[in-house]
Design a protein that fits this description.
Elements (H helix, E strand, L loop, with lengths): L1 H28 L6 E5 L6 H17 L3 E5 L6 H9 L6 E6 L1 H8 L11 E16 L8 H10 L3 E4 L5 H13 L4 E4 L2 H9 L5 E5 H9 L4 E5 L25 E9 L4 H16 L1 H9 L9 H22 L5
Parallel strand pairs: 1-2, 1-3, 5-6, 5-7
Antiparallel strand pairs: 3-9, 4-7, 4-8, 4-9
Helix pairs in contact: 2-9, 4-11
Length: 324
């Protein structure tokens, strides 16, 4: 018994040493042990999905791993967030979300996660202005004309979902212009299709799904919500140009890992994402969609997120927006 008692500390030390060695090996081998799942918080075709799919091949090339996209839409992205929150913090399950990640905790009575505690912010992806568009059958060609038309005839607008910045941007415009336009929320990929089909006369969405339809003549662009015009659509005025102040709203995209993911893996993933987003082919694709990214660290993304969460909480409160 005495020998066993004396050997116990050595056994524990040996076990701890083995566990540390295994963890170090796992971090060194990442991401080659198995496929890395990028869990996208929205359906195929949504802007978040477009971002993820344009980066997977480049990420595989840069890391030697296998990156795959899995879509898990629903509840404004909360279903995917909750799933990744519960995933093993080993770098093999990552969340790809939009700015809704920062909005949802104030929009929902229980979003199922804490944006600042349950995840490690890996990297901030590209961002894009929101854009107001209308079906070609709508006579209005400018934002003032659209506002006046909405004051005379009841109108509705499609957005990428309750509490998204596309929804909140239009609600801010409605308040500033003193006009009532009925909100019809859709899944992100479906909002633009609703306007093209004439189910709703107008939409407030991010630019990626709208730009191809605008260039094809299936939609008319009215205004972008950034403070200045978008280089992609230089002929489309910004909301600010029409006298609506303090409009500089964007939809951004981000990559997150479960809390507890080793710093070494986060650093590797951050470096790979930044290099992927800087590659000429990805830059060109994002530019075509009206998106742009800036190199950033995990810490910088964390600081950005700590500013975004209270910012959008204030907008949700002032607008009265609530998810069902």
């Amino acid at each position: 018994m005495m020998k066993l008692a004396r050997s116990t500390p050595r056994l524990l030390i040996g076990l701890c040493t083995s566990l540390i060695a295994l963890q170090a090996a796992a971090q060194t081998d990442w991401p080659k042990a198995k496929p890395v799942t990028l869990l996208v918080a929205f359906a195929p075709g949504a802007s978040t999905d477009i971002v993820a799919r344009n980066l997977t091949q480049k990420l595989s090339e840069l890391t030697g791993g296998n990156f795959v996209v899995e879509n898990k839409g629903g509840a404004g992205g909360n279903i995917a967030s909750a799933q990744v929150k519960r995933a093993a913090p080993d770098g093999y399950t990552l969340l790809v979300h939009s700015v809704a990640f920062a909005v949802n905790p104030s929009l929902y009575a229980d979003a199922g996660y804490d944006a600042l505690k349950d995840f490690v912010p890996v990297a901030l992806g590209p961002k894009t202005p929101n854009i107001f568009t209308v079906n070609p059958s709508v006579a209005a060609k400018t934002l003032p004309e659209l506002v006046e038309a909405a004051k005379k005839t009841p109108m509705s607008y499609a957005s990428s979902g309750i509490g998204t910045t596309t929804h909140l941007s239009m609600e801010r415009l409605k308040t500033a212009a003193k006009v009532d336009i009925v909100h019809v929320p859709y899944q992100p990929a479906a909002a633009i299709n609703a306007v093209v089909a004439g189910h709703t006369p107008m939409a407030s969405t991010s630019m990626p799904p709208a730009v191809p339809q605008i260039k094809a003549g299936k939609l008319k662009a009215i205004a972008v919500t950034s403070a200045t015009r978008s280089p992609l659509l230089p002929d489309v005025p910004s909301v600010t140009e029409y006298g609506f102040k303090e409009f500089d709203d964007y939809t951004w995209f981000g990559f997150f890992a479960p809390a507890g993911t080793p710093a070494a893996i986060v650093e590797k993933l951050n470096a790979a994402l930044n290099r992927a987003m800087e590659s000429p082919e990805v830059v060109e694709k994002f530019t075509q969609l009206g998106m742009a990214s800036t190199k950033n660290s995990s810490a910088e993304f964390g600081n950005f997120l700590r500013a975004e969460v209270p910012k959008w909480s204030a907008v949700v409160k002032s607008s009265g927006a609530k998810a069902d």
